[in-house]
Amino acid sequence: MTQQEALQEYLLRMADSGMILAQRLSELVGKAPALEEELASSNVALDLIGQARNWYEYAAELIDDGRDADKLVFLRDAHDYRNLLMVEQPNDDYAVTMARQFFFDVWHYFTLKALSNSKDERIATIAAKAVKEATYHLRRSSEWVKRMGDGTEESHRRIQDAFNLLWRFTGELITPDDIDHAMFEAGIGPDPQQLKQDWFGMVREVAAQATLAVGEEDAWMYMGGKTGEHTEHLGHILAVMQFLPRAYPDATTW
Amino acid sequence: MYAQMVDTGTKRLKTLEEMSPEERDFQEKIDAETKIEAKNWMPDAYRKTLVRQISQHAHSEIVGMLPEGNWVTRAPTLKRKLQLMAKIQDEAGHGLYLYSAMETLGADRDEEIQKLHDGKAKYSSIFNYPTLNWADMGAVGWLVDGAAIVNQVVLQRTSYGPYSRAMVRICKEESFHQRQGYQILLDMMREGTQEQKDMVQDAINRLWWPALMMFGPHDDESPNSQQSMVWKIKRKSNDELRQMFIDQTIPQLEFLGCTVPDPDLKWNEERGHYDFGEINWKEFYDVLKGNGPCNHERISTRRKAIDEGAWVREAAVAYAAKQKQRAAKAA
Amino acid sequence: MSEWVLYEVFVRSKHGLNHKHVGSVHAADNEMAMENARELYTRRSEGVSIWVVPSATITASASDEKEALFDPSEDKVYRHASFYKLPDEVGHM
Question: Rounded to the nearest 5°, which phi and psi values hold at B27?
Fold first, then answer.
């Protein structure tokens, strides 16, 4: 794989992860547990789609085969998607939604922070804007994890269950593969060792305040999203999200 | 409108002579266009009418998120997804502004929402119609928000201060909603395939009459409306507003190159207005009574969200209490 | 319903301006009130600073007492800048 191909792949991972999480959040419109949460949850989704669009546009320029951001989103099948498995997991109850958000936000925040110092100026610019938004996302999801963990007996049980349920998808966030290593070595992506350390540090700190137990570092981990091998959920997400462009292939404008 | 039939609890209007000194003082303030504020004396019926109207208005914003939420997961481009989501988010915000105005009257948000979930409170009939194709997102923005704006612009001058200020804020934020909707339709009509153009016409066919119903019954059939006008809670009558809406909308319709399903619609040179056919009032009252296509789904979705979210809200309360205790101990 | 507490929200829209009352939010505690106020009242980046205050802690004058409370100061015109007529040459002050 050439350096540029690795970069394209890396950009798609950033773009797809944000996009698919936003799609999950958009399923919750009108269904949040409090009216105030409708606004907060949509804000996160709007931020993520905005960021994804920036990543897609950069990726599209590098791929340079005539596809634009919309075509990348609406006309690729599941095996071409490069998002983390974590973000495609269903909303289930709000504890699962929030635990998913929290695990992602910690990863996202530290990743963006590193990317804002990337040697690739385009990446650094996109990340510098995005990290401000991610800082707020992380604060919000951390607060909710603490409220649920140290709230009522029921909320504690639910968020602990959610942590347990989603733990197997956390490995993918912090286990580097060849592309992650290549990006780091080129001065583009974050230091995988540092990222892992930061991620665990923050997750353990918040979990402790929330009186929650976290899983083992060496627990079995479910991975594959970054290389296009997804859980069954992604196909269904895409079936909904891509419906119109697929059903009306002749339509060139919406 | 978003509040279509608000009961004022009055059968007949009082004359100034029949009023108590307080009532007369109050009415004179209203007549002098002095805004009524939360702490001012007000007739009980005025307060109750306002709570009913503002809560209906707020409920409509919140329930109104659902027909559009139905398509937000299927928006066909990134741009449309962002626009639609921002619009729906505004609706949640506007619902909250309105509940906030309502609470200045001493009403409780959670109690009023419970009434909605128990089927005891109304919201605009329009949101009980389904959104069946993507063009509905355009037609809802253009027609439904368009109708709402006609009403809300006038409501900025409503006599109750907090309601009026909420309307000012809402109108300012909503200006993009209608344009967003119209642009969806215009783009499809100008550059779309025949299938897309058919979608647009289909959406207008289904939503035209329900949009006109948003303004409520004829003036002579709404006695409550008269009291609301005297109190300047309402500033223009249902029929006046409906006519305004039609007059401004038909040229936009023609520009799209679409039609409305009303054979009686034509320009009346003498009146300087469009004439139009009679609304199916039986359908209007049926929907209002709960027998619209989506009444059941809308309310059960809202009820489910709030009921199943109870543990989340309780967790936050319990956590806040623990934090407070800890802070007190530490001090 | 147990539910959250009502907070009044004040937003400073620009540096140099006063905080202005914009409405209210519900929240379980001060931090959440701040988050919720930010989400609701500064969606279009209308603010540089927010205050949230539990509504129950506000003491308000009854507006009907307006005359008693505020009328006396109306004849203290010397408290208002327009009382002091300055020659045009002085310019804006």
Answer: -65, -35
Map out the domains of chain A with their CATH numbers: 3-247 (1.20.1260.10)
Alpha helix stretches (DSSP H) within chain A? 3-26, 35-63, 69-74, 85-88, 94-115, 121-149, 153-166, 171-174, 178-185, 192-209, 233-241, 243-247
Which residues make beta-bridge pairs with C11? C20, C50
Q: Are B188 and B138 in contact (CB under 8 A)?
A: yes
Does residue A135 sit at the C interface (CB-CB below 8 Å)?
A: no
> CB-CB: which of A39, A143, A147 is closest to C39?
A39
Q: What is the pLDDT of residues A11-62, one digit of tens each?
A: 999 999 999 999 999 999 999 999 999 999 999 999 999 999 999 999 999 9
Among B256, B178, B195, B245, CA closest to B215: B245
ipTM: 0.97
**Distance from C-alpha of B243 to C-alpha of B5, rounded to nearest angstrom:** 18
Residue C40 has a CB neighbour count (10 Å cut-off) of: 25
DSSP per residue, A118-186 = -SSHHHHHHHHHHHHHHHHHHHHHHHHHHHHHTS-HHHHHHHHHHHHHHGGGTHHHH---HHHHHHHHT
In chain C the domains, ranked by start, together with CATH numbers, are 5-82 (3.10.20.520)
Contacts of A30 in chain B (CB under 8 A): 62, 65-66, 69, 88, 301-302, 305
Q: Which residue of B has its CA nearest to A146?
A: B319
Residues A188 and A11: beta-carbon distance below 8 Å: no
pTM metric for this prediction = 0.93
For C4-46, the pLDDT digits (tens) are 999 999 999 888 899 999 999 999 999 999 999 999 998 877 7
Which of C31, C39, C43 comes nearest A36 by C-beta?
Answer: C39
Nearest to B92 among A35, A52, A93 (CB): A35
- Say which DSSP state B273 is in: E
Q: Helix (H) and strand (E) counts for chain C?
A: 2, 3
